[in-house]
């Protein structure tokens, strides 16, 4: 069965050993650096607010190995819509309650794909992604507030989800899980002694319009092919005084 056929049926697919160990090690160090710079921010919330002026982050999300995967699902003209480290610390990492990404996103049309890049080993013990295969074919459900437990989104899907239908997405560092914007997914709390960190990367075809008053969108970057219908943020220039140091930094100077 082809990758795209499997994705169309299940709403997700896994690619193994995509990113090399050295770059993953740098990503892990990058997360630790961000946490030190933003001690008042929970590590599950290291999103574009803290990354938009970060050359290493742009270097990572524009890696050709990731773009080649994204091209299978959105075509050759690729832009970044958003990206977010979700780093669950040992013992206290927050859950992500069941949801569908498309319930949140200002995109027209909803042509987008998420690549979830594992920075750490991701297992049921430390709160790996869980999803319901085939649920991407359902209607987009409403969301409701849930503050009874501390959680990353503060919301959950307003329909019952049968836990028996869910599968655990077990990944090694450098693996990539790809999922559809409509698939029902979430993750449990991390009560283990091991951090669980991943980088979510939301790629769009450049024909998908990012809506909203703020243009260019804070995390919109053109990455490959034709630029299409959106305006984009400028690529940041590396400054050793304020940016995370990394191997390829000179190429971004």
From TrEMBL:
Q: Does the keyword Oxidoreductase apply?
A: yes
Signal peptide range equals none
| UniProt keyword Oxidoreductase present | yes
| Keyword list, A-Z | Dioxygenase, Oxidoreductase
- Short name of one Pfam family for this protein? PhyH
**Record GO terms (molecular function):** 2-oxoglutarate-dependent dioxygenase activity; iron ion binding
Taxonomically, the superkingdom here is Bacteria
According to the record, the segments passing through the membrane are none
Q: Which PANTHER family match?
A: ECTOINE DIOXYGENASE, PHYTANOYL-COA DIOXYGENASE DOMAIN CONTAINING 1
Q: What is this protein called?
A: Ectoine hydroxylase-related dioxygenase (Phytanoyl-CoA dioxygenase family)
According to the entry, what is the taxonomic lineage of the organism?
Bacteria, Bacillati, Actinomycetota, Actinomycetes, Micromonosporales
């Amino acid at each position: 069965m082809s990758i795209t056929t499997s994705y169309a049926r299940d709403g997700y697919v896994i690619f193994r050993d995509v990113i090399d160990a050295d770059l993953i090690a740098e990503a892990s160090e990058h997360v630790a650096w961000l946490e030190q710079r933003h001690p008042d921010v929970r590590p599950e919330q290291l999103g574009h607010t803290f990354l938009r002026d970060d050359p290493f982050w742009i270097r990572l999300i524009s890696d050709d190995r990731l773009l080649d995967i994204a091209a299978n699902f959105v075509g050759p003209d690729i832009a970044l819509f958003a990206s977010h480290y979700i780093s669950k610390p040992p013992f206290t990492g927050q859950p992500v309650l069941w949801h569908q990404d498309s319930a949140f996103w200002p995109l027209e049309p909803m042509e987008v794909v998420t690549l979830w890049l594992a920075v750490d080993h991701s297992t049921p013990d430390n709160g790996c992604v869980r999803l319901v295969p085939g649920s991407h074919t359902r209607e987009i459900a409403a969301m409701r507030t849930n503050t009874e437990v501390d959680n990353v989104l503060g919301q959950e899907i307003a329909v019952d989800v049968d836990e028996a239908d869910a599968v655990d997405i077990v990944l090694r560092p450098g693996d990539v899980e790809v999922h559809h914007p409509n698939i029902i997914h979430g993750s449990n709390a991390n009560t283990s002694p091991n951090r669980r960190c991943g980088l979510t990367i939301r790629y769009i075809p450049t024909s998908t319009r990012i809506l909203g008053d703020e243009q260019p969108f804070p995390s919109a970057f053109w990455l490959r092919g034709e630029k299409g219908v959106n305006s984009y943020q400028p690529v940041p220039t590396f400054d050793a005084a304020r940016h995370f140091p990394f191997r390829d930094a000179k190429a971004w100077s």
